[in-house]
Amino acid sequence: MATLTEKIGQMIxxxxxxxxxxxxxxxxxxxKKYKIGxxxxxxxxxxxxTFRRNIRSPEQLKALTQSLRDYCPHxxxxxxxxxxGIVNRLKPAYGFxxxxxxxYLGEMNDADFTYRHAxxxxxxxxxxxxxxxLAPVLDLALNKENKIIYGKERCFSHDPEKxxxxxxxxIRAHRKHGVLTAVKHxxxxxxxxxxxxxxxxxVTDTWxxxxxxxxxxxxxxxxxDMIMTTxxxxxNLDPDYPATLSRKIITGILRERLGYDGVVMTDxxxxxAIKDHFGLEQSIELALNAGADIINVGNNMExxxxxxxxxxxxxxxxxxxxxxxxxRINESVERIEKLI
Length: 340
Known about the structure:
By secondary structure, the chain is α/β, with parallel strands linked by helices. It has a single domain, classed as Glycoside hydrolase, family 3, N-terminal domain (TIM Barrel).
């Protein structure tokens, strides 16, 4: 029987610093003490503004991921954002294969090509010890002025059916190579005018029901391993909270209306759309009660070597103070255990 601490650990994803892992790296303590279930890798460190974070070469990355697993006897998954094209942590400059953006794949509009290219991405991840790709993106290419989504070529198309088709091939290729995927950004970031990394983004006047179509399609086909939320605010869906913190959106729309009972991961809670308006404790409480299963803190927009201890302490306190029920924790753990 897992302890509360062990169950909470399975619900945490966090980033860390280091090209190598030594016993004194804080992430080792997090793995041993809290049995955290997920870590996320980056090549660029937002705080130091340098490409000195976790990735330098294929050989170094293999050694890093193996070291992490050596410290970790419990179920444990290493994740990365390797969408392809601009959003690409494993860059050719480090010795990894060149990748194409979702936009490029959508414009090619060749399902077999998308599958083959996604297979290359998935094979690269698997070979280097990475078990979860935080991709593909299901956002629709609706606002061409959006710098963080359309501007970074992260949309397959403006057509939800085309998005569904290419995402299906992308996921199918990853499953063939034993790599999980997390589709994003629910319930849709493609119509937004702003960037949730930088502040609150209101899509009330731009969001449309069409943005749910790829999710509905892939949920009905059982093609989704995990869904990542976005921090956009839409007063028509929830007048009080952005999607990541909204029970009306995660439970009401995603789970009840679309029938999804899989794992939900928050987007990074350090993004300013959340951080500037909600404290970490409040955002964790709201996200969990909304129906999220994995609390995701990249630990990169700001860096705190004790971040996992802080998150675990907050979650434990929420349970002990009856703000989060242990049944709610158990629901998430059951979903995660089914997935991994």
